[in-house]
Amino acid sequence: MAWVNIATRDTDDANSATDVNQLMENNRILGGNGVSAPSNDIETLETEMNTAQADILLRPIDSDNMIINGGMDINQRAASYTAIASGTYLLDRWIYNRAGGGRHTATQDSSVVPNTATGFSLKLDVTTADGTIAAGDLYVVGQYVEGYNFRKLNGKACILSFNVRSPLDGIHCVSFISSGSDRSYIVEYTVDTADTWQLVQIPITFDGGGSGTWDYINGIGIRVFFTLAAGANFQDSADTWLSTQEYATSNQVNTLNNGANNFYLANVKLQLAPYTIFNNRPFQQELSFCQRYYEHNYDYGVYPGAATQVGAQEFYTSGNNNSDHNIRLDPRYKVSKGSTPTISTYDVAGNGGSGGAARVTMVAGNNKAATIANVGFTGFRVNGANGAVSTERKIQVFYEADSEL
To answer: Is the pTM of this model over 0.90?
Structure first.
């Protein structure tokens, strides 16, 4: 856990005018954090400052944000995502769904919100336009919030805030959908100027003890979707809880109407009201949050299927009997999973598969068949057959463990 750090002042000259001015300026900066109106009494002001500073030091950075990777810092899967199929995960925790002939390419982009500490945004680049949205067409990007994280929000006044840069001005929609897909809530927001970063704040009170199916443990607590375009089959009224799964109103613009369009999203935060500004969590902390749902054992920035030996899980020995052999290895995950993951394995040449088609490197070479067993929340077993007579024993494997909701 990282903490906000406020530099302390030098108390050697507590009575100097410079110190008073500095304390007054610190008082102004820390407004709203427990410091009373400016005081000319240096001892009183110093006490107030110490109290306020202690309060801030004990407050973790953005611990109240239920969106994981809202700053788009973490991208474990690929350098880019082309002709994205529906149900594909992009940057960590962000899922893309579509029905229709339009196509996007997604990337972690360096277009960022001006005058913020933002490092990245999620960019969706239209590569095949869908100029006429049919009734069954739908294009959305969003996140499934786990029930454990969602339950503190349910039945309470909340705020969804984000920065958006859309290719079109006009009305856009966000949709909140229950775990059972039997309750949804649509909110409209207006983009004032096309291709310009804009902060949006959306108030929402979740359904609480109302009807519908809700998960408060390790399943989907709430789905949060940003709509890019939606046909009539997915449209309904705004600002009311619906008993069906809907994504937009009829006012939603079509951001796929031109092959040159780009849609950007950054600094997404879902919290209890009132609104507070987005702050990035420390990188390693955000990465570990993401790895609850997906991880691999390549170096960060190296993507599954790469030809490399760096980071591979390996067992090796020599001087054994000269015969064919089987070897098993039991990799442990970096972060325990919330549900049993799907395992895919790769050899050091980049050949890969899952289940019975899993591949590993052994003494006889690459692309050797392997089987996966004993898959659990903390690790799994891979069994490899060498396929050659040798006095050496070796198995090398990379893995992906995917337990997305």
So the answer is: no
CA Rg, the chain, in Å?
Answer: 26
* Three-state SS sequence of 73-108: CCCCCCCEECCCCCCEECCCCCEEEEECCCEEEEEE
**Distance (Å, whole) CA 380 – CA 382:** 7
Q: What residues make up the domain containing 43?
A: 1-59
What are the distances in angstroms from CA 225 to CA 164, 261, 328? 13, 19, 42
Instruction: Find the helix or strand (DSSP H, E) in which 287 lies.
Output: helix 283-291
Q: Check whether residue 139 and residue 247 sit in a common domain.
A: yes
The string of pLDDT tens digits covering residues 226-264 is: 999 999 999 999 999 999 999 999 999 999 999 999 999
Q: Give the CATH number for residue 176.
A: 2.60.120.260
Classified as helix, coil or strand, 189 is strand
Decide: 140 and 96 in contact? Cβ < 8 Å: yes
Question: Can you tell me whether residue 369 is helix, strand or coil?
Answer: strand
Which residue type sits at 269?
K
Distance of CA 132 to the CA centre of its chain: 31
Q: Report yes or no on 181 lying in a domain.
A: yes
Residues 347, 376, single domain; the answer is yes
Number of domains forming the structure of the chain: 3
127 and 232 within one domain: yes
pLDDT single digits (tens) 118-174: 899 999 999 999 999 999 999 999 999 999 999 999 999 999 999 999 999 999 999
b/e code 85-104 from CB counts within 10 Å (16+ = b): eeebbbbbbbbbbbbbebbb
- Angstrom distance (rounded) from CA 46 to CA 11: 10
252 CB-side CA count, 13 A: 31
Q: How many CB atoms are closer than 10 A to CB 44?
A: 11
